């Protein structure tokens, strides 16, 4: 029984890799380029991946230093954090696609007060 389970797991991994869809690994430091109607910025995001679970840290001039949580399901990435800007609390959500081992792109929602787009490059 144990050998049969091992064989099934190996086959599943092989078919995933053969299809060119190896699981994305986003652990590391990323430099984002964000564009919104209110302007742009270049936050630094450090991510740690544990399976589909993401934790990390977001650093920018606009939102300061905040911790984040999120998920990575296949190539679909989502992470969010809460930030206070001039006395207003915003729930910020990034959602997008991991394009390659060192790039991603998508959209950012600024707590319903605005939206924008992002691209990101992995630094380490």
Describe this protein's structure:
Mean pLDDT is 86; it is low at 5-19. The protein has one domain (23-122): Quinohemoprotein amine dehydrogenase alpha subunit, domain 2 (Lipocalin, Beta Barrel). Strands 1-3-4-5-6-7-8-9 form an 8-stranded antiparallel β-barrel. It is globular. The chain starts with a helix and ends with a strand. The protein is mainly beta and 124 residues long. It is built from 1 helix and 9 strands. The protein has one helix at 2-18; strands at residues 28-36, 39-41, 44-50, 53-60, 64-73, 76-85, 88-100, 103-110, 115-122.
List keywords for this structure.
globular, Lipocalin, 1 helix, mainly beta, single chain, about 120 residues, eight-stranded antiparallel β-barrel
Structural class: mainly beta
Low-confidence sequence ranges: 5-19
- Mean pLDDT score: 86
Shape descriptor: globular
- Name the CATH superfamily classification: Quinohemoprotein amine dehydrogenase alpha subunit, domain 2
What is the terminal-to-terminal distance?
Answer: 41 Å
Top-tier CATH class:
Mainly Beta
Largest sheet: 8 strands, antiparallel, barrel
The CATH architecture classification is Beta Barrel
Cα Rg: 17 Å
Number of strands: 9
Percent range for helical residues?
Answer: 10-25%
What percent of residues are in strands? over 45%
Biggest sheet strand line-up:
1-3-4-5-6-7-8-9
CATH fold topology: Lipocalin
> How many separate structural domains?
1
